[in-house]
Amino acid sequence: MTDKPVVLMPEDVQRLLGKDAQRNNILAAKMVAEVVKTTLGPKGMDKMLVSSANDITITNDGVTILEEMEIEHPAAKMMVEIARTQESEVGDGTTTAVMLAGKLLENAEKLLDKRIHPTVITKGYRIASEKAKEILHDLALKITTEDEDVLRQIAMTAMTGKGAEDAKEIFADIVVKAVRQVEENGFVDLDDIKIEKSRGEGIRDTELIQGIVLDKERVSYDMPSRVAGAKVALIDFPLEIKNPEIDTKISITSPEQLQGFVAQEERAINEMVESVKRSGANVLFCQKGIDDFAQYLLSKEGIYACRRVSRSDMEKISKATKGRIVSNINELSEGVIGNADSVEEIKKGGDVLTYIKGCRNPKAITILVHGGTEHVIDEIKRAITDSLGDVACALKSGLVVPGGGAIEIELARKLRDFSQGLSGREQLAVEEFASALEVIPITLAENAGMDPIDVLTELKSRHDAGEKYAGLNLFTNKVENALDAGIIEPLKIKTQAIDSSTDVSIMILRIDDVISSKDKSSGGFGVGKRNRLGEFE
Q1: Residue 128 confidence (pLDDT)
Q2: More exposed terminus of the chain, fewer Cβ within 10 Å: N or C?
Q3: From CA 62, how far away is CA 273, in angstroms rounded?
Q4: What is the C-alpha to C-alpha distance for residues 208 and 194, in angstroms, rounded to an integer?
């Protein structure tokens, strides 16, 4: 018999085996971490992302950068998933999670060079991750909703470096008030806090509305532009005659029949408007359409109306005004009507907004973000969103830790002590895990133009001397007690970042064979056609 080659897969399939596969995946993950590295901390730089349609996004928010880039390498996509998970779970700390994963893989590469098996490294990383979370809980401090100053400091820490420093005290007040307003039994649903944008005025004019602001205008200019003592009706059925669901033909043979048909339609709409009037409502929000004749009748009765309001906005108005959304005209009565001090249409620049103000103890409120340009408003909105996530997260767990790299240095120190008690090669993996944590204070120092070696040395010596809260205050460029300096973060940011980064590192390290059916032109890591990436110095 002749020895014939056995063909398992088609010719266009690419295959990377063993070390090549590992190194390729690790390199891709490190490149993702490198992209977001310069954005970390209050002195971090911004990225300008330009789409194929020339839409510009200027941000230093890790998850926004990674989602806007067209990353194609499969291992790099896994790094983007970390950022998404961090964003959905906590709302902040995306850059930390991605950088930590990149550093864990970089350190694992050193161990691979020493011929330590990937399974040993992954076992060591898992041990270190569990121990790190245990240490974090021991170091964490408890807070409650009454600790307003601490909550304000958490809010300010979250928004530093995101273009919001000039008004961070104002924003922090707004964020804390908003979270405390919608908080119920320690639970905060961030969907109850609506963030609306308004172009014009400065960012310091950003305001908290005790009610809801809608990106809607009244349906007719004959309606009052302002209604005081608003009685709000919420309906999710149309104020118009429904079209038949099946094809229908109506045969009309005389002008009288036509007149009668039109009159019947008008009577039906008139009856609907009468029902609204009988309920005592002087403001109407409709999820569906409002007929022209209905608009005329509502205007005549002095009722302010908006149509095609989204379901999510209807639910927020319901929570704010204590009104109930009704699905049937017969259910509309005084008992389902909501209340507000006023409903008003306000024009600002080119925007027309409807303000529902002065709700009593509303459980849904609005933060109205002002700014000179769309790009500024978008970045302030991202900063406030991160800040809301941090404060809500801190209240949910009731635990916080010092920021400024303090917790990472203390964690690394305790992990190194712990590793001394381990036998076997896992000890080396735990030590590399501890070293990876130090990437956070090192990067904070680098981004602030400080010498990272000097900073790391001072931080380590201060922690060895028992100053477990010593961290880097980048507003003074000194190592200080992070708690006294007001640099505070929720515990969940750190535990989630350690969990996510460890999981993805272990998954990537366990891959020793990459089989790809794509051709070479579509593979690899990079920014695709949609965006170009540039540093914004």
Answers
A1: 92
A2: N
A3: 50
A4: 10
Rounded to an integer, the average pLDDT of 175-202 is 83
Backbone angles phi, psi at 288, to 5 degrees: -110, -155
Tokens for 142, please give them.
């408890």
The partner residues of 353 in beta bridges, in order of sequence, read: 346
Q: What tens digit of pLDDT does each residue of 242-292 get?
A: 655 555 666 666 676 666 656 667 788 888 888 888 888 899 999 888 888
Q: Helices 118-139 and 94-113: crossing angle, nearest 10°?
A: 140
- Six token digits for residue 484: 């006294």
Under CATH, what is the fold of the domain 14-142+401-536?
GROEL; domain 1 (1.10.560)
- What stretches of 38-117 show up as alpha helix (H) in DSSP? 62-68, 74-89, 94-113
CA distances from 421 to 410, 415, 431 (A): 18, 10, 12
- Which 8-state DSSP code applies to residue 297? H
Looking at domain 214-361, which CATH architecture does it have?
3-Layer(bba) Sandwich (3.50)
Q: Is the model's pTM score more than 0.85?
A: no
What does the alpha-carbon distance between residue 357 and residue 344 come to, in Å, rounded to a whole number?
8
197 by DSSP, 3-state: which? strand
How much of the chain is helix, strand and coil, in % rounded to 5?
Answer: 50, 20, 30
Nearest to 304 by CA among 323, 286, 278, 329: 286
Catalytically active residues are 61, 94-95, 386
Tens of pLDDT along 313-347?
Answer: 899 999 888 889 998 888 888 888 999 999 999 88
Q: What CATH number belongs to 144-210+366-397? A: 3.30.260.10
